[in-house]
Amino acid sequence: MARLQKKKTTAEKVRQKESHSKDLSVSDGAATSGGKAGSAVSKVKKLSRSGDLSKKGAAGSGVAQDNFFQKGMQFFREVRIELKKVTWPTRKQTAGSTVVVIILVFILSAFLGVVDFGLSKLVQVVLA
Fold first, then answer.
1. Residue 53 contacts residue 44 (beta carbons within 8 Å)
2. pTM to 2 decimals?
3. Which run of H or of E encompasses 99?
4. Coil, strand, or helix at residue 125?
């Protein structure tokens, strides 16, 4: 299927990145630069406009907690996006792989059992 899809031009890639960054922007409407400073600065600006800056402190202990929460939410958004890209096996493929693994475990355990038995008998003969 990948061969059938048209390659994206550089302009299309830039537009896709821009739309993706807009989707992931802060919900209060302030666009961030994607880093730590962007969300913290927009939060401080918002607090200073509303007059709540004196309540939370100059640096704002609430800003650090919000920033931590925002980073966590960003992580889970990215996880969800990456999981959509995964090609999940079908039930038939999973069952087939499971059977192969179980058979290989039995074969290897039988081989190691025979080798262990043989070596233990060899040690008994040498020591006796």
1. yes
2. 0.40
3. helix 91-127
4. helix
Tell me the CA distances in angstroms from 36 to 19, 32, 40, 85, 100, one per residue in order: 20, 9, 6, 27, 48
47: enclosing H helix or E strand: helix 36-50
Question: CB–CB of 86/93 below 8 Å?
Answer: no
User: Looking up tokens 């038939």, which residue turns up?
Assistant: 92
Q: Read off the pLDDT of each residue in 38-51 and give the average, rounded to a whole number.
A: 50
d(Cα 10, Cα 127) in Å, to the nearest integer? Answer: 75
What span, in angstroms and rounded, lies between the C-alpha atoms of 83 and 18? Answer: 21
What pLDDT digit, counting tens, does each position of 71-97 carry?
Answer: 999 999 999 999 999 999 999 999 999
